[in-house]
Amino acid sequence: MWGQSTSTKVLFDSLIAEKIGEKIIIGRGIPTEWIADGKEIEIKDYSVCKTKKVGYNLSVKGKEVTITFTGDTTDIPFSIELFSFKDNIESVSVGEIDNAAGTVLVPAGTKSVTVTMKK
């Protein structure tokens, strides 16, 4: 049973994880195969900031990846960190891009962000 609980924790951490007091990390372990046209990922009710529950819906249409944040509003930003974004971000609707690292830092309170990839 402990092995299964550890595996479940690792899976959740690959999809969403909180760096306490700093940011909520989205997608660090999502395989590039999951970021393809027509794909969708949804996470609901993930506990953060002690008492809040957040989630997101990630959908892909062509080169555009749209992430819609759900649940409670937090005081800390979201950091979208997909392998598919590394040196591949053309533009973003809101947030700060680090193209070399493949990350987008989205301000707290943002409801949705669209990232356009180069390829």
Description:
By secondary structure, this protein is mainly beta. The chain has one domain: Sandwich (Immunoglobulin-like). It starts with a helix and ends with a strand. The protein is 12% helix and 47% strand. The longest helix is centred in the first third of the chain and has 14 residues, at 2-15.
Q: Helices and strands, in N-to-C order?
A: HEEEEEEEEEE
Spans where pLDDT lies below 50 across 5 or more residues: none
Strand content: over 45%
Which word captures the global form?
globular
How big is the Rg? Answer: 14 Å
How many angstroms separate the termini? 42 Å
Helix content: 10-25%
| CATH A-level architecture | Sandwich
- The CATH class assignment is Mainly Beta
Main sheet summary: 5 strands, mixed
Biggest sheet, spatial arrangement of strands? 1-2-6-9-8
Please tell me the total number of domains.
1
Reported by name, the CATH topology is: Immunoglobulin-like
Number of helices: 1
How many DSSP-defined strands? 10
Features:
five-stranded mixed sheet, 119 residues, 12% helix, Immunoglobulin-like, five-stranded antiparallel sheet, mainly beta
Task: Record the SSE blueprint.
Layout (H helix, E strand, L loop, with lengths): L1 H14 E4 L3 E4 L13 E9 L3 E10 L2 E8 L6 E4 L7 E4 L3 E3 L4 E4 L5 E6 L2
Parallel strand pairs: 2-6
Antiparallel strand pairs: 1-2, 3-4, 4-5, 5-10, 6-9, 7-10, 8-9
Short description:
The chain has 119 residues and is mainly beta. The protein has one domain (2-117): Immunoglobulin-like.
